[in-house]
Design goal:
Helix content: 40-55%
Radius of gyration: 17 Å
Strand content: 5-15%
Shape: globular
Number of helices: 10
């Protein structure tokens, strides 16, 4: 294995918004970027836009450069009660039977779930008027629906100096600021992503 490429859902259609998401996600994953196995590896985050475009880019990577570790990272959209592959097969009709489960990862139920896992970071960003009490308090945030996460985030930020949460303007910036350890403690699929890549890097020969 000569490198790791993570194909991430999101970033919109413009080069600028994809670059912002790349920066935010790369910062969030900085612990993984800093890992050193038996030899150095290239580490690349690739924002792909829509879910379908992300799947296509991931499959193209698998076919064109098999010497790299290719990771698919998309929103689950719904609560997950099965393996990531089974979840995407049932929900999206994606056929992933030819792909190992360790390559498929989910943000459950959405990237914003990761953001609300660290209320302190959000409060530092949004400042006056931020209402942390409106965010979900569940320790297991992956049981909270996408709609509830979105609604709570809107309520918590509505009266702040930075303005109500906006995915394009705020999401990528917040990824840089939240504490991955706090997210991993409340989102088991995020912990799975970190554990999988860490094991792959350390096993590299």
């Amino acid at each position: 294995m000569k490198g790791i490429e993570i194909y991430v859902e999101g970033g919109g259609t413009s080069a600028a918004t994809k670059a912002t998401l790349r920066k935010g996600m790369s910062e969030f994953l900085k612990e993984l970027r800093g890992l050193r196995g038996p030899r150095a590896l290239q580490f690349k985050v690739i924002p792909c836009g829509s879910r379908g475009e992300t799947l296509d880019a991931f499959r193209n990577g698998l076919e064109s450069d098999p010497e790299r570790l290719h990771i698919l990272l998309v929103d689950s959209e719904d609560v997950v009660d099965s393996s990531p592959i089974d979840h995407l097969r049932k929900r999206d009709g994606w056929s992933l039977s030819d792909v190992t489960d360790g390559l498929i990862h989910l943000m459950v139920c959405t990237m914003e779930t990761w953001l609300v896992a660290d209320p302190d970071a959000l409060e530092r960003y949004y400042g006056q008027g931020f209402r942390a009490q409106d965010l979900p308090r569940h320790q297991d945030l992956e049981r909270v629906s996408k709609a509830m996460v979105a609604s709570s985030l809107d309520k918590a930020t509505r009266d702040t100096t930075a303005g109500e949460y906006h995915k394009t303007r705020h999401g990528s910036v917040l990824l840089e600021r939240i504490d991955p350890a706090r997210v991993r403690a409340r989102c088991r699929h995020c912990e799975r992503l970190f554990a999988t890549i860490r094991a792959k890097v350390l096993a590299t020969t």
